[in-house]
Amino acid sequence: MMSYCGRFQSARYLVLCLLLSGTFQVCAESGGVDPQSRSIGIALTSEPPSLNSLTTQDQYGSFILGHVKEGLMRYGKDGELTGGVAERWEVTATRVTFYLRRNARWHDGVPVTAKDFVTAWQAVLNPASAAPNAHLLYPIRGAEAINKGQIPAEQLGVNAVDDHTLVVELEAPCAYFLALTAYATFLPVRADYLERFGSRYAAEAGFQAYNGAFKLDTWIHGARLLLRKNPTYWDQASIQLDEIRIDHVTSDPLALMNLYSDGAIAMTDIGVDNLDLSLRRGLPLSQFEVANLFYLRFNFAEGRWTSDPDLREAIRLAFNADEMVNKVIALPGFRPARSLFPTYIQSQGQSLRAHYPPDVRPPDLTQARQKMQAFLQRKGLDAPPALHLLTSDTPGAAKQAEYLQSVFQSALNLSLKIDKQIFKQRLAKENQGDFDISMTGWGPDYDDPMTFADLFASWNPNNRGGYRNPEYDRWLEVAKTTLDNQERLAAFGQLQALLQRDVALLPLYENALIYVKDSRLKGVQRRRFGADPAFHYAWIEETP
Question: Measured in Å, how far apart are the chain's first and last C-alpha atoms?
Fold first, then answer.
């Protein structure tokens, strides 16, 4: 157990730490598990906004797609990057050749071919698709020009030499290209399904083909999804579950915990507000340090108060990440965030933090108020304007938003008007720029610092705050194209320093999950990269 537990002296945290370390034993068992049918029940906190891999950008869609489809690369039993549809590959500075498995099949038995990847990638880049992650394909020759409508899709540097050989030409060296191909945007797509369903492609369970460990058998929107083992999957011998039932969609942590206690689901995360109740019930708790980044996104649009550097600096100087983590969140495994780059992030096996630690600047209320006064004088204001804080509607997010509201009101006389929205609507409002500050988070799409770094590129549609800095874009290009890892690390160090200097974001914390799982369910993977949780290697043990 990490030393974080030692920070807390109360009996509550002593019991929690004992539970998480396995020192304190509990007898509670629960279900959601059917050994006879080899099926499990789970819940989602939100319905996937989309299961179209061409346009998916959220954790819920990525979770389902990670079980029902498979790309050239995937993440293995130990979280390592390994071959998916690709059996082997050859890499040079500007060319990657993939050799596809001859036994890779779609759910209807049709072979997965190199053309299925060409079809998908050209569709992602089609300007009409408005795919938010199209930029991830930009390392491929011609991809950016196609996405901007400058050249036809047929000029994309991808060639299906034959059904089982895919050659990818790169614009420039790309040290992380293999990792990219494990992400949802790079998944294969059947042309016949795309042509048949058009704008309705992937909108229903039967509206796309599946080549993953499972296939989506049922999708009743807002209510139920059913995943069944895919009998044509090339590695089906490793898949021990026959069904994954998602009969509940709710963001209420208490409802989720009750579903688990009642035997309706096999596992669930425990919200902070229900931790005491779970301890009283003696639930078997586990911990996973996800270390996703949660942060405040500022709106840099002209006319927004938050485009002013003194206001952003005042907010930064008034905020204490340690206090938020230790007193408000108060859960083992959570860490104060210090940078855009989480603590675990590595470039080609080397820790970014070890080479370039962030500049940790402590809070200073005197300086914060001086910066606020400078902002007020320049804008001709007598008092700070009210700001619109956009956040999720979960209990945890609400508690954190109210804490921030209190902190900034007390320290700076700054009023935050909290706007709580369901996930899908919060995403829509961010995309529309309908906020001053957004409390948001980002988990990695793939295993490389670039998955965080390009969030603040001027050209990235995920840069929803509109931060623009030509120097940032220049260093980002260095990190994207060099194969020298020391040069890459140095570039990421420069990017980190620029974001801190410009207060482009306010890092809040890196998260952890406290969760419960039926002891009969074995082999569940908790992942930082790819679908989490992952059930590819899970099985049911009849006797606990």
Answer: 24
Task: Decide if 476 contacts 454 (C-beta within 8 A).
Answer: yes
Closest CA to 226 of 405, 378, 41, 402: 41
For the chain, the maximum distance between any two Cα atoms, rounded to a whole number of angstroms, is 72
For residue 397, CA distances in Å to 46, 79, 142, 272, 438 come to 15, 29, 41, 10, 11
Whole-structure pTM value: 0.86
Same-domain check for residues 245 and 357: no
SS3 assignment, position 70: coil
In a domain, 167, yes or no: yes
pLDDT, tens digit, for every residue of 7-23?
A: 333 444 444 554 454 43
Q: Of 148, 182, 207, which residue sits at a domain end?
A: 207
Interval 104-116: pLDDT, tens = 999 999 999 999 9
Report how many helices (DSSP H) and strands (DSSP E) the chain contains, helices first: 17, 24
Is 459 a member of any domain?
Answer: yes
**Type of residue at 399:** K
Same domain, 286 and 302: no
Phi, psi of 287 (to 5 degrees): -130, 140
For residue 104, the enclosing domain spans 59-207
Q: Which amino acid is at 431?
A: N
The kind and range of the H/E element at 67 are: helix 59-68
pLDDT at 315: 98
CATH number, domain of 169, equals 3.90.76.10
Tokens encoding 261:
């206690």
Beta strands per DSSP E along 234-308: 243-249, 267-269, 285-288, 293-298
Grouping H, G, I as helix, E, B as strand and the rest as coil, residue 87 is strand
Residue 87 buriedness (CB in 10 A; 0-12 / 13-18 / 19+): middle
